[in-house]
């Protein structure tokens, strides 16, 4: 996972191993390794620039600090490598954080809505199922609305997921998505469900028809959450998509999918910094239990090894 990003930090560690002093030259050489791998991983250029500048400033500015006080009050010598990696860790965490995995949900028993948006193939339908599964485990009663009417397989896919999770799926052939969403809310009330998850249509690329349909759904039902499902494999494109969806719909956050594969990781590192909106969950596989709450610290740790 995230091999491309990890590579640069590994190279920097090798470069710093055994060194007794963190000179500005060593910092720059290490940051060069990191910069190349971040760009290769398709992290947004501005984000790479900022990250490198922040780490450099701290690493060079704190040259004198070669001891730290540990939890037991003991002073301990810090190797230049540990010092540098700690700065990288803190800056990676700052880039992706703070933790914000909560959803806007009314108290149990009152109806809340989650609108799932994203490009086709991003994992939106699968993630809708995963989120319903998670809500079920929290004692909620979800209902799924199949509003991706242009890809007939998506409706069937959601029905299969609903059957597997024992969660009702609302769909009516021939009804347009904004109306479907509204009727989905009514169906949820009738069936005493307390969370509606709307699986909306995706396209291969953003287009006007898609965006205005999503805006109509939003203004018809006023969902409590709008989450963009993003394929983490597509790097900077994911970030551009995210920014455009956010501009049109005002997103509450992101779910990055396929982090279990050989995702280059660019989106994970850039999306928060570029849009200001949090990553809420990570998709870590195809099955319904493979949805993790996003922990910037955990991901920074995985990246730094
Ligand atoms: P949609 O077009 O956005 O609704 O995408 P789908 O939900 O149909 O997902 C597209 C493909 O990605 C399917 O083969 C899913 O099984 C797969 N997929 C979705 N999420 C993940 C994930 O987190 N990890 C992996 N490995 N595959 C995923």
Explain the layout of strands and helices.
Elements: H1 3-16, H2 24-40, H3 45-61, E1 67-69, E2 75-77, H4 80-96, E3 112-117, H5 124-137, E4 142-147, H6 152-165, E5 169-170, H7 177-190, E6 195-200, H8 208-221, E7 225-231, H9 235-249, E8 253-257, H10 266-275, E9 279-283, E10 291-293, H11 296-304
Parallel strand pairs: 3-6, 3-7, 4-5, 4-6, 7-8, 8-9
Antiparallel strand pairs: 1-2, 9-10
Helix pairs in contact: 1-2, 2-3, 3-4, 4-11, 5-6, 7-8, 9-10
The structure holds guanosine-5'-diphosphate.
The site of guanosine-5'-diphosphate (GDP) has 19 residues, from helix 5.
Structure write-up:
The structure is a single chain. The chain has helices at residues 3-16, 24-40, 45-61, 80-96, 124-137, 152-165, 177-190, 208-221, 235-249, 266-275, 296-304, and strands at residues 67-69, 75-77, 112-117, 142-147, 169-170, 195-200, 225-231, 253-257, 279-283, 291-293. The protein has 305 residues and is an alpha/beta fold. An eight-stranded mixed β-sheet has the order 5-4-6-3-7-8-9-10, with helices on both faces. Helix 10 (266-275) links the parallel strand 8 and strand 9. The radius of gyration is 22 Å and the shape is elongated. The mean pLDDT is 93.
| Number of DSSP strand runs | 10
- Small ligands present: guanosine-5'-diphosphate
What's the number of helices?
11
Order of helices and strands: HHHEEHEHEHEHEHEHEHEEH
Distance between the termini: 11 Å
Instruction: Provide the structure class.
Output: alpha/beta
Parts with pLDDT < 50 across at least 5 consecutive residues: none
- Regarding quaternary structure, what we see is single chain
Approximate shape: elongated
Q: Main beta sheet: strand number and arrangement?
A: 8 strands, mixed
- Average the pLDDT over all residues and give the rounded result: 93
Percent helix, as a range, is: 40-55%
Strand order of the largest sheet: 5-4-6-3-7-8-9-10
Which percent range describes the beta-strand content? Answer: 15-25%
Q: What is the CA-atom radius of gyration, in angstroms? A: 22 Å
């Amino acid at each position: 996972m995230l091999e491309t990003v990890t590579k640069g930090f590994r190279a920097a560690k090798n470069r710093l191993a055994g060194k007794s002093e963190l000179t500005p030259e060593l910092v720059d050489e290490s940051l060069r390794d990191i910069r190349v791998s971040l760009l290769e991983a398709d992290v947004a250029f501005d984000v790479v620039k900022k990250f490198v500048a922040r780490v450099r400033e701290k690493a060079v500015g704190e040259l004198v600090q070669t001891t730290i006080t540990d939890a037991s009050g003991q002073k301990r010598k810090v190797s230049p490598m540990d010092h540098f990696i700690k700065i990288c860790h803190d800056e990676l965490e700052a880039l992706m954080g703070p933790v914000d995995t909560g959803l806007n949900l009314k108290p149990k028993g009152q109806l809340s809505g989650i609108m799932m948006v994203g490009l086709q193939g991003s994992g939106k339908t699968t993630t809708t199922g995963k989120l319903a599964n998670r809500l079920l485990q929290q004692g909620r009663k979800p209902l799924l609305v199949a509003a991706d009417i242009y890809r007939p397989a998506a409706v069937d896919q959601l029905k299969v997921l609903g059957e597997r999770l024992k969660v009702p799926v609302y769909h009516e052939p021939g009804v347009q998505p904004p109306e479907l969403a509204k009727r989905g809310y009514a169906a949820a009330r009738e069936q005493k469900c307390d969370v509606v998850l709307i699986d909306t249509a995706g396209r291969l690329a953003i287009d006007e028809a898609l965006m205005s349909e999503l805006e109509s759904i939003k203004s018809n039902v006023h969902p409590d959450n709008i989450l963009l499902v993003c394929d983490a494999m597509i790097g900077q494109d994911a970030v551009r998509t995210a920014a455009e969806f956010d501009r049109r719909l005002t997103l509450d956050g992101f779910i990055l999918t396929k982090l279990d594969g050989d995702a280059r990781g660019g989106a994970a590192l850039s999306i928060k910094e570029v849009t200001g909106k949090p990553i809420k969950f990570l998709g870590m596989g195809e099955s319904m239990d493979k949805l993790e709450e996003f922990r910037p610290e955990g991901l920074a740790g995985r990246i730094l090894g």
